[in-house]
Amino acid sequence: MGWATGCMEQWILEHMESYGTFENECMVILYDDMAKLLKDARFHYKEVSQEAKDIGSQVHGIIERHIKTNLAGKIPVYLELNKDPAVNPDEVHNGYNAFLEWEKKFVVRYIETEQTIFHAQELFGGTLDCIAELKDGIYCIDFKASKGFYDGYGKQVASYKFARESVKEPTTLNVKTRDDREFSCTLNPIKIDGIGVLRLDKETGQPEWKDYSSKYDRKIKSFLALLDFWYKDKNRQLKGNDRAKKLKAT
Question: Which has the closest alpha carbon to 143: 114, 173, 121?
Fold first, then answer.
């Protein structure tokens, strides 16, 4: 809420002159014009949010290509960015540069990227950004191009580790996406030592790493509690699995 209000304030300060006139060195805005100014500024946060999503998607996309090039046994070069006029290329460059700086200091090798995951007992899935061997062990990593670390990040990356480690033998997942694409992927068992989020600053080009490993137990318990709430709230029909038995007993 505070962030959206801040976006509205910024928009008003940048555009208010076009809604009024100057009289004796004072800005005068009539009531109807003020109402229009506030109405126009009200949903500016949606434009800012969409632009941030577009930048974040491009940063994620170029990092995915970088890691896949590495996994293919090739040496990644500085990849050309998409020519999208709606996205600030400097901010995409900065996000990618932040990733490269972090990679140079901490990454030993990559193991997986953009991996589809699913937990058969708890009934949730997703796509994890990266599993890599760092200097401190094998980590499940989520990349963010946000302006800060937010409350849900720890629970999100904890859920990825939890789901990925639920694979106890080679397993093939048959996946159907929201846009009706279908593909299969094979997962092998893996032991993950830690979890963390890498924030890639779009303005400064600096990486910021946050290790959530010590909070893993609390974060995954919180995530599963929220998942219980979601299933109950949506009144989902569950049959023949541990989650159904647990929810039925409460």
Answer: 114
Residue 222 and residue 212: Cα distance in Å, rounded?
A: 14
- Write the CA distances from 191 to 34, 91, 122, 148, integer angstroms: 59, 35, 19, 29
| Residue-wise DSSP of 45-82 | HHHHHHHHHHHHHHHHHHHHHHHHHHHTT-----PPPP
The angle that helices 89-106 and 44-71 make with each other, rounded to 10 degrees, is 40
Average pLDDT for 151-159: 95
Report residue 50 as tokens: 């969409």
Q: From the centroid of its chain, how far is CA 245? A: 32
Helix (H) or strand (E) holding 131: strand 124-134
In the block, tokens 């020519």 appear at: 83
In 3D space, the residue among 125, 115, 113, 112 whose CA is nearest the CA of residue 184 turns out to be 115
Residues 6+ apart with CB under 8 A from 182: 174, 175, 176
What's the pLDDT at 228? 87
| pLDDT exceeds cutoff 70 at 237 | no
Work out the angle between the directed axes of helices 216-234 and 152-165 (0-180°, nearest 10): 90
Domains of the chain: 43-248 (3.90.320)
Q: Structure pTM?
A: 0.73
| Measured distance CA(32)–CA(35) in Å, rounded | 5
